[in-house]
């Protein structure tokens, strides 16, 4: 079974797409002591930024998440390999129409979950959510075992209350088993706003606030503009931060798997 991680926050510009792309790239890196993970990034945002992050123009694509989600093609037909062990399932503006069409479909909140269950060859599936809380976000949350919330400023915190409410409702309705983590992005060490936000996040998320932070680093925006993940820019702060984040996420996932196996065994 794949570990499905949704990267969500109702605000735009908090580092969702950047985190999806870079977490995925580092998770797909060969490890000396274990089998290399196969990773898929699913773009749930009609802005299509996942394609762009790998220098692919998603608007030129015929088969995307839209066609796969509405059953017009098999998901594998829309998947593209971007790196070794790293594939993407891109989206484009058609997905905005898809969101409306989806409202009429049976089991509309669980379409993505059903679709991803066919893709168990992946060790990790990372879902990049759109800003806002629509049916696409709900599909992403309902498909995930882990929700990772990037938070950059106080402003980005304000929407999290609603996100938590929707999650709680989904957990009740679908009997889901999700763990919510937060990661602080655009961090500036020693800057009062960043430091006081960190304190606030610690008290809100407790041990589910990741120890890794993503510092503000211009190499990250350069990488985005050049259509490459930060893994292509070693010796940058962004590289170090995302490498550490991926390691922490993998460790936490492994711990949770172990705990849930124990519970199942009784
Ligand atoms: N840590 C960072 N330092 C500098 N720029 C960043 C950082 N994280 C993201 N960015 C840039 O900020 C912009 C918005 O990030 P993005 O991940 O697209 O946000 P979202 O998906 O939440 O809207 C992008 O141009 C990205 O390159
Ligand atoms: Mg985005």
Tell me about this structure.
This protein has 266 residues and is an alpha/beta fold. The protein has one domain: Rossmann fold (3-Layer(aba) Sandwich). It has a seven-stranded mixed sheet, with helices on both faces. A hairpin with a 2-residue loop joins strand 3 and strand 4. It starts with a strand and ends with a helix. The model has no long low-confidence stretch (mean pLDDT 94). Bound molecules: adenosine-5'-diphosphate and magnesium ion (MG). Adenosine-5'-diphosphate (ADP) binds next to helix 1 and helix 11.
What characteristics describe this protein?
single chain; 266 residues; alpha/beta; Rossmann fold; 7-stranded mixed β-sheet; 12 helices; 7 strands; 45% helix; globular; binds adenosine-5'-diphosphate; binds magnesium ion
| Tally of DSSP helical segments | 12
CATH architecture: 3-Layer(aba) Sandwich
Helix content: 40-55%
Largest sheet: 7 strands, mixed
CATH homologous superfamily title: P-loop containing nucleotide triphosphate hydrolases
How would the global form be characterised? globular
The overall number of domains is 1
Radius of gyration: 17 Å
Give the strand order of the largest sheet, numbering strands 1, 2, ... along the chain.
3-4-2-5-1-6-7
Bound molecules: adenosine-5'-diphosphate, magnesium ion
DSSP E strands, number: 7
For this structure, the CATH topology is Rossmann fold
Structural class: alpha/beta
> Which whole number gives the mean pLDDT?
94
Give the strand content: 5-15%
Task: Sketch the topology as an H/E string, one letter per element.
Answer: EHEHHHEEHHEHEHHEHHH
What ranges have pLDDT less than 50 throughout 5 or more consecutive residues? none
Q: What is the level 1 CATH name? A: Alpha Beta
Cα-to-Cα separation, first versus last residue: 20 Å
């Amino acid at each position: 079974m794949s570990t499905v991680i949704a990267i969500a926050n109702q605000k735009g510009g908090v580092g969702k797409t950047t985190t999806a792309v870079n977490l995925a790239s580092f998770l797909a890196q060969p490890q000396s002591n274990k089998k290399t993970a196969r990773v898929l990034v699913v773009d749930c945002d009609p802005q299509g930024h996942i394609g762009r992050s790998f220098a692919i123009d998603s608007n030129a694509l015929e088969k995307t998440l839209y066609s796969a989600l509405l059953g017009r093609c098999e998901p594998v037909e829309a998947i593209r390999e971007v790196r070794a062990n790293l594939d993407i399932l891109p989206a484009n503006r058609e997905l905005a129409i898809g969101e409306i069409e989806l409202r009429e479909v049976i089991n509309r909140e669980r379409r993505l979950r059903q679709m991803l269950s066919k893709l168990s060859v992946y060790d990790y599936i990372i879902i990049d959510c759109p800003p806002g809380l629509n049916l696409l976000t709900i599909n992403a949350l309902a498909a995930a075992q882990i929700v990772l919330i990037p938070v950059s400023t106080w402003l980005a915190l304000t929407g999290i209350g609603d996100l938590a409410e929707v999650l709680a409702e989904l957990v009740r309705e679908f009997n889901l088993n999700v763990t919510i983590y937060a990661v602080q992005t655009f961090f500036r060490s020693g800057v009062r706003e960043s430091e006081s936000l960190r304190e606030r996040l610690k008290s809100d998320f407790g041990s589910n606030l990741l120890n890794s932070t993503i510092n503000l680093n211009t190499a990250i925006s350069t990488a985005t503009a050049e259509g490459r993940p930060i893994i292509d820019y070693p010796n940058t702060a962004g590289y170090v931060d995302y490498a550490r984040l991926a390691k922490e996420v993998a460790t936490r996932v492994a711990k949770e798997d172990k705990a849930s196996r124990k519970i199942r065994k009784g």
